[in-house]
Amino acid sequence: MINVAIVGYGNLGRGVCLAVDKAPDMECVGIFTRRAPESVNPVISVPVYKVDELKNFKGKIDVLLLCGGSATDLPSQASEFLKDFNTVDSFDTHAKIPEYYAKLEKVAKENGTLGAISIGWDPGMFSIARMLFGAVLPDGNDYTFWGKGVSQGHSDAVRRIAGVKNAIQYTIPKEQALSSVRNGENPTLSTREKHLRECFVAIEEGANKEEIEKAIKEMPNYFADYDTIVHFVSDEEVKDMQKKLSHGGFVFRSGKTTNEASHLIEFSLKLDSNPEFTGSVLTAYGRAVAKMAKEGKTGVVTVFDVPIKYLSPKSEEELRKTLL
Question: pLDDT, tens digit, for every residue of 217-227?
Answer without folding.
Answer: 999 989 999 99
